[in-house]
Every structure is written in structure tokens, then in C-alpha cells.
Design brief:
This protein is mainly β. The chain is built from no helices and 11 strands.
Length: about 130
């Protein structure tokens, strides 16, 4: 059973920082490109950041470039979890949203911006930035 579990969301003041984590079960996800998306109230889900399996390529939405950093730890054992992180600095009220972790099929391709390129999704974690 594929499972992506996000954590690290919460309430923070504008200018503050949060670090989101996404634990992906299964060693095969060490070969999967992964991404973060977000959905604000009344808006469609949008791309935030993506990273390829080897962490040699990263992509960011213009709205978060220079403030957010995506990274990953790949599992080295069969029963370990692959974890993707989203470090969010200089947070703004407009960053308020539910943040979702997503994964492509393992060994299927590189990081992508398009939502429909991802096959697996987490349940989301709420990030609220107060002004």
C-alpha cells in the first residue's frame, strides 16, 4: 500500500518559518520524483515545488522562489521511509493553504510542475500564516 503522510503544518506569523515533511512508504520511492502543491480556500490546487529522485533538479513556483526549499532523504533500507521536506521561510499570509505532498510512479520520470503527472497524494497539512 502506497502511503504519503505529511506533517509539520501549523499556525505561524508573517515572516516566520515552517518545515513540512512527507514520509513515503516503500523503498522504491527513492527513485520517484516528488512534489509539493497547495490549495487555498476558494482556489484551485497549485504547484509549489518539485524535486527529482536524485535531488539534482528542483523546480519552484515563482511565488515561492527564494523563500521555499525542497529537499529529500532517500531510504537506504527496505523498511525505511523516503522523506521529502519543504522548508518555508519568510512566510506571507498568501501562503495560507492546505499543502499536499505528491509522488510520481517510481522510476517513471523526472520532476514535473503539472499536477496530473503525479500518481500518489498525501492527505494534506494546513499551513496558516497570520498577518
Amino acid at each position: 500500500q502506497v502511503q504519503l503522510v505529511e506533517s509539520g503544518g501549523g499556525l505561524v506569523q508573517a515572516g516566520g518559518s515552517l518545515k513540512l515533511s512527507c514520509a513515503a512508504s516503500g523503498r522504491t520511492f527513492s527513485s520517484a520524483a516528488m512534489g509539493w502543491f497547495r490549495q487555498a480556500p476558494g482556489k484551485e490546487r497549485e504547484f509549489v515545488a518539485a524535486i527529482n529522485w536524485s535531488a539534482t533538479s528542483t523546480y519552484y513556483a515563482d511565488s515561492v522562489k527564494g523563500r521555499f526549499t525542497i529537499s529529500r532523504d532517500n531510504a537506504s533500507r527496505d523498511n525505511a521511509k523516503n522523506t521529502v521536506y519543504l522548508q518555508m521561510n519568510s512566510l506571507k499570509p498568501e501562503d495560507t493553504a492546505v499543502y499536499y505532498c505528491a509522488a510520481r510512479r517510481p522510476a517513471y520520470g523526472g520532476a514535473r510542475v503539472a499536477e496530473d503527472a503525479y500518481d500518489y497524494w498525501g492527505q494534506g497539512t494546513q499551513v496558516t500564516v497570520s498577518s
